[in-house]
Amino acid sequence: MRTEIMSKLLGIIGYPLGHSVSPAFQQAALDYCGVDARYEAWETPPEGVPQRVQWLRSPEVLGANVTVPHKEAVLPLLEGLSETARRIGAVNTIVNRAGRLEGHNTDVAGFMRALREEGGFDPQGKLVLILGAGGAAKAVAFGLAVAGVARMTIANRTVGRAQELAAAVEAVPQVRAVALTPEALTGDPPWDLIVNTTTLGMAGSPGEGESPLAEAQVPPGALVYDIVYNPKVTPLLATARRAGAHTLGGLPMLVYQGAEAFRLWTGLEAPVEVMFAAARRALWST
Ligand code: ATR
To answer: Is 71 a catalytic residue?
Structure first.
């Protein structure tokens, strides 16, 4: 009998996928660790998601990443969910365990690891401002709530979404949902941490070049963390630097969420320096 030696497959599911750098840094990590697998871009329109997920149960598939706009749509299609994925209601990593699909959310771990290791920030007892209330904001708010922040203000263009998110983080002693306007944001004591989860400032988005906050709104001692990773210095980070605040960009979160996914698929510790280098090359040196 002939034995097929087939390399394994991984990929990212999203729509559109033009911007994704995951294939570059995940492939670099697989190659570095000698894992015989290919990581591909699987652009999938909404109507193709059930079929794509069904295909992930194939023996050659190790798993997948899931990105916008499918992080919520895949949930009911999976056999198991991690506690974090279930509580947030979003999956960014799927693991194929012999035809049984497990959903995880590594955005939370990625965000928190970047905050602690690259930002040098301990959230316990701190005052935080979250800009935005979409899918990414949910992971950020959940991570910070579990880490024990004392006070959280959630500011969003659509206040109703901020209110919904505020209601979901009941563990935080003081939570406030407001509009993303200078007037609505006055009155808080100075924030220790400001996190941008909106698409404002993102290259290629309608809000490219815009900062969600003005210089006078940024407390000089704060850490300003923009999870947008392209451009490297977003308009908010430039504003924060002028205000004398510390800054952290979105690349470490991107790499660390990928590192946690890599560990789930392969059982190996991810080579994060290799991943950082490949992501930087894919993003900024073309
Ligand atoms: P993601 O899953 O990446 O968080 P999302 O759920 O579409 O994506 O959320 C995008 C966030 O950016 C939202 O908070 C959105 O505000 P609304 O809830 O009001 O839509 C915010 N956002 C996008 N464009 C914006 C703009 N021009 N001004 C202010 N906020 C904006």
So the answer is: yes
